[in-house]
Specification:
The chain is an alpha/beta fold. Helix content is 43%, strand content 18%. Strands 7-6-8-9-10-12-13 form a seven-stranded mixed β-sheet, with helices on both faces. β6, α6 and β7 form a beta-alpha-beta unit. The N and C termini lie far apart (84 Å).
């Protein structure tokens, strides 16, 4: 090879190296984010997820991209959204704070890694083989929120000692409904209480469910986790106040919307843990080898303003044990 040709080849390679380096650096992993709720309703929770992801070394737009898919309470859209993410060849799918999305994602792919957070036992949902050894392409965080039904029922009795009629509202098609009702009925039986189960699959049916409750003192409603209701929490809180019904929920957002009280996992912590697990998978960890974590932080939140509106006197002891009292 002549010296002139050799030098031309070196010059061409030198010019190509920066281009190759830039191309490699621009090829960042893409996370498929699937959720049954809406972005606006989950701004704070999403921030917690991104914090966990950042603590794990991944910052959106810097070294990872995120494709968001929000069903905004229309769960029937989730399968198509999951299929779209799969077609885009995302590095993994995450469903933080959305059990319905987790079930859909697991049904949609057995190869793409999935990092979920689930409101009930993920083994019972078929997401993993066991908590310690997931064994497939999915792992994540479980808040076991549905299994806290007994705790919420006990809280409702403490808040409203003279309650005589207990109601709950479920979305019949939800994966969370059956375990929640089972545990609630079991707890009610042990306390000698009867629970009336009301059902709603649409916003209109929520209105009709409340209309079916007798307009007289002594009513109490206990809720379990449900993304469909979370999106419509303002509607539910307003209906409960209009009908003077004390309500106990699974998360603080309902109480901030006007509900009486909540007891459940610290969902911000759950979202942060989920983001951390996503980071671990992006770094090469296999979901099959990552045990499902269980939520360890739980909180009691009371809306004292709602209590005053409902003319409920909350004991100083209960107020003292609350993690937050909304005045």
């Amino acid at each position: 090879m002549r010296r002139r040709d050799f030098m031309s080849m070196l010059t061409g390679l030198a010019a190509a190296w920066p281009l190759a380096a830039r191309a490699q650096s621009s090829a960042m992993p893409v996370i498929g984010f699937l959720h049954a709720g809406s972005q606006g309703e989950n701004t704070k929770r999403l921030a917690a997820f991104l914090k966990g992801l950042g603590d794990g070394g991944f910052v959106e737009g810097r070294n990872v991209a995120i494709e968001y898919r929000w069903a905004s309470g229309n769960n029937e859209q989730l399968p198509a959204m999951a299929a779209d993410l799969i077609a885009r060849k995302v590095a993994l799918i995450t469903t933080p704070g959305s059990t319905a999305a987790a079930v859909v994602a697991k049904a949609a792919t057995a190869t793409i890694p999935i990092v979920f957070s689930s409101g009930t036992d993920p083994v019972g949902l078929g997401l993993v083989a066991s908590l310690s050894r997931p064994g497939g392409n999915a792992t994540g965080i479980t808040s076991l929120s549905a299994e806290l039904a007994a705790k919420r029922l006990g809280l409702s009795r403490e808040l409203v000692p003279k309650a005589s009629r207990y109601f709950t509202l479920i979305k019949p098609s939800s994966e969370l409904a059956a375990p929640f009702v089972h545990d609630l009925q079991e707890a009610a039986t042990s306390l000698g209480i009867q629970i009336v189960v009301l059902k709603a699959n649409t916003a209109g049916e929520i209105d009709r469910a409340f209309d079916s409750i007798p307009q007289s003192p002594g009513n109490v409603m206990v809720f379990g986790p449900e993304g469909f209701f979370y999106v419509r929490r303002a509607q539910i809180a307003e209906l409960a106040l209009w009908r003077a019904i004390p309500t106990v929920f699974d998360g603080r957002d309902y109480v901030e919307a006007g509900g009486l009280a909540s007891y459940g996992p610290d969902f911000f912590n759950v979202m942060e843990l989920t983001g951390g697990y996503v980071a671990r998978v992006l770094k090469g960890a296999k979901p099959a080898d990552l045990p499902v974590q269980q939520a360890t932080k739980f909180e009691l939140v009371i809306n004292r303003k709602t209590a005053k509106t409902l003319r409920i006197e909350i004991s100083p002891t209960l107020l003292a044990t609350a993690d937050e009292v909304i005045e």
